[in-house]
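hey so i finally got around to running both of the ones u sent me last week. sorry it took forever, my laptop kept dying halfway thru and i had to restart like 3 times lol. anyway pasting them below in the order u listed, first the sequence line then the structure token line for each. didnt double check formatting much so if smth looks off just lmk and ill redo it

first one:
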Amino acid sequence: MRSSPPARPADRGAVPHARLWHRLAMSIGAVVVLILGVLTTGPGAARAAGSQEPCDIYASAGTPCVAAHSTVRALYASYNGPLYQVRRASDGATMDVGLTSAGGYTNADSQDVFCVQTACTINKVYDQSPQHNDLTIEGGGGAAPNPDVAANANAAHILVNGSKAYGLYVGPGVGYRDDNTTAVPVGGQPQGAYMVASGTHVNNGCCFDYGNAETNNQDTGNGRMESVYIGTGCGQSPCAGSGPWVQADLENGLYTGAGSNLGNTGNNSEFVTGMVKSNNQSTFEVEGGNSQSGGLSIWYNGSLPPNGYTPMSLEGAIVLGTGGDNSNSDMGTFFEGVMTAGVPSDAADAAVQANIVAQNYSGNSGGRPQSSGGTITLPGGQCVDVLGDDAGRDLTQVNLWSCQPNAIDQHWTHNSDGSLETLGRCLDIDGDGTAVGTKVELWDCNGVGGQKWIQQSNGSLLNPQSGLCLDDPSGNTSNGTQLQIYTCNNTPAQQFSVNGGGTVNGPGNQCVDVAGDDNGGNLTHVQLWDCQPYAADQHWYHNTNGSLETLGRCLDIDGNGTAVGTKVELYDCNGVGGQVWQARSDGSLFNPQSGLCLDDPGDNTANGTQLQIYTCNQSAAQKFSLE
């Protein structure tokens, strides 16, 4: 159970914002590169002809999948549809993330391109089975009446057979559900389920579940759900060791057996396979194993618990990341899972475990991520941070904390409407207030005045609605100091550095830009375009080796050339001389290898003018300022 947060003031209206469509079509060469990138499967992406994936194995054993969810791979050898959908914070656009090939692995590169320099969340997880039991963000329930929030899409970066993938990173308040399913077992019908999840990103909150649950998001009594649970909550004390344990959540109880089961010593590997299956009349079985090596341990195979569990009374919803009544104080990371009609044989389960191990899961399953956005720091070196561990909810305090490069909640995206966003929520003034001393917090991004932050030339972040600035009370740099708004006073307590990349301003007040709409591939032209503060491909990072980087690639001279008039483009950052740019006192960007300067041909400031290198001449056509 968890208490609900206090009600938000009634004047909070959602104000949608949209990014203006502005760009020219990409060049034919860049389009070819992007197409080749989509078609290239990368390491480990190809599957052997005739190979069987988990749902093929279960179907062959007579227990077909009625749900198959994964953010990392296909669970049928023939599947070639979407795995999940991401939503981009900068403009609210959504995109389905699919596979590199039928029966293969996620096309994580497409997510990286779509979400570059902005926050993305997972909006939906698609069911690969013919039943189409897709999971969307869970609504409120008996334990937590407010709707849940979406998971940060890039918070759990791993590898599967050498292919980059992202897990579904669950923190308190995150959950997914489908209350209107097809073919999922109900009543006392037999069922099996497994999930692959992190064994390190866990807690003892209720409840990191995947499986069968109530259809009304309420606790309707014992035996109304049957899900796989992985976490450190000891359901039937005493438990052996410190967990985490694979258990069965049967509603109003986590079970490693009919009661306490000291034989279940837990699974604490980086990746854990958890399985629960039952005839739902009299017996159930709990299995667990290391998803990276070895087989399964049968932790329990015996009678169902007494008092309402014999037989079971399943309702047939599917839940991921919470308990049946939306109990959502848990943590976990989900990578794949299925539900079957009928009880799978131990042989089928063993074959599925072997298939899972063959995927070569690797990386940090607990989700120390590639953080999007940049830090916001004060002169004392502290970072603007969200109270807690990357699990900020509405009303969570925004404070100062020692900078931690891997902390998602210290990386903020400066959106087109002036808002600052992390963890899928925005830096907000309590109650949309305007009084001196009003504290700041996280709240759903909705475009109100209390979420606008405009950086001034002295470093302060001005909130125009109140006329006040973001402020560190009394210049206190202690961890946990909650920030506020205060009279703008040009003191160090208000001098925030927003380290999310900056524009390169060129001739005619145009900006250095990448052709296309925030999706540049190798060889994409670098050009001038009207400045758009929200455009990811107009924000460049000046790296310590002298390179200028955006969209994960560097400003590069075509062919690493040195001739006057050679065009510039994007290319993979590789440290060559054609990627070194030195800002000089006359405003030029000098390339030492060629001895030439970045140049606007003919001082043409029209949108789409491709830049070049040219003899340094101190003209207006070579004045580029790094913001």
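and the second one:
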Amino acid sequence: MTTAPDLTAPDLTAPDPTASLYSRLQDPVPLESLLGDPTAADNPLGFAAFVAADERGDLLSTGERALDSFGLGAEFVPRALGGRLGRADRLARVLRPLFRRDVALGLGHGASNLVGSVNVWSASSPEQRRWLADVLLRNGRIAAAYTDMSTGNDVTHTGFRAELRGAELVLNGRKEIINNIARAEAVTVLARTSDAPGSRSHSMVLMDTASAPRDRLRFLPRYRTSGVRGMYLGGVEFRDCPLPVDTVAGEFGEAMETVLRAFQVTRAVLPSAAVGTLDQQLRTVMDFATERRLYQRTVAELPHARSVLTGAFLDLLIADCFATTVCRALHVLPRQTSVYAAAVKFLVPLLMRDTVHELSVVLGARSFLREGPHAVFQKHMRDLPVASLVHAGGTVCQATIIPQLPRLARMSWLSDAPAPAELFHLDLPLPDLDFERLAITAGRQDPLMATLTDVEPELRADPVLGPLVSQLHDELRDLKRDCEELSPRDRTPLAGPVSFQLAERYALLLAAAACLGIWRHNADNPSSFLRDIGWLTGALSRLTARLGYPPVLGAEGVQPEIYRELTYRHATGRGFDLTGRRLA
């Protein structure tokens, strides 16, 4: 089943064979074109301008105006309310050009609006939804005031309070490290509304900043950061601030349930959007490696450098497979995405961090330069760790996964039916995102993991893929046993290190299942590279290595064809992700 790589020179002038696929996916070509070539010296929206703004600690104002002209706010508004939000995977691809150029812009005009609005679409009155839709459609901003400094991501223990006093809701406390808090027209605020224990002691408040009494709130000084320096992080303090009772979004006491549902969307979309940053990091190092000469050859011709570049390409494909699959799961498997979204929000930033570190070794001293053609690399390298913490860090996501593992191990793994083709096929339509269908926990089914088990017999006879999938299948059996044997304490967020290691192993297996599903269900894809088994072999080799398995004999043989595809895409200005379309 394994085929020899085709190493003939690619036709760099050939028409794009996936053009029809891109149009059906509605990829955001207009935004990519609007922002222009980021490497062009005369482009006011190029890397030089973004790096200069970052040095000043500002968001690039021309970038903000360009996004307003594009009407980016409409991307976060459901289509039923006049916006363009229908598919989570499409939204992620809309945001990728932003993250490719400037993480601060992606967070300031992407993550902030998304995180702030999803709870309103999930649970609020029709009047509140229409009002917020109008704000975003007019290119307004919404901030998400969920955390405070004392409790961080543990929002259940927030000290911020909202108290009913007659016909008013009175807010008291501080919210800190909030993106765009001083620049937003709308703010969603998580507040404690009851002293009773349990999950029904918090409510969500949707505040119109223009109507709040300014003598009862105070904006705190801006926080400065080492990464995403242009992001406007701040805080706000409320002191007996009265608001109308109808500013509560949803019912009193239901905020935690709303958060657990709605934040599955942000946990899936944001890692997928951040793939654009990794794409540019690889592109920057490819520029250097194909031009710089050492020992009478280019850096890219050196075995170690070529291995790193090929591995980075594979890691990017793994990240895109996993993130795209989980974005589609929000539509296809909404009852299971609680655990999938947490897993992708944990694993994709981890893959990116490790990959960028390896790429920095190839780039060498240039990876630290803050000016010149490679300056964007150091900027992205500083920005990505901050971006990975936005909304929920890796540990928080693992803590979401751990309590669900024993149940899935006992009732699902090795026995469930596999996920449907709609989860993986990049060209199949999806219904619009329905927040009400999202469940708080994954229940007893794990169709994505079942895909791994289902594909195993089909690939068993292949001399390379067979052993790789066998390793993954063995790992799933071991994980099932280990999860079933967890003590009661190690099944909670207070678990010890072993449970967190199990959560990481689970996420790696899910990523492998996503790769297998994408390969299997896109046999009609216009891209011959995506249809072939070479990239799949390389991706599974990377994942099994992370799981501690030895290399499979013959797996390294696919590296030449993977590197050939990498150089082809680099030379023709195509993305390194699943679709591989031409960039601006």
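quick thing i noticed on the 2nd:
DSSP finds 19 helices and ten strands in the chain.
anyway thats it, ttyl
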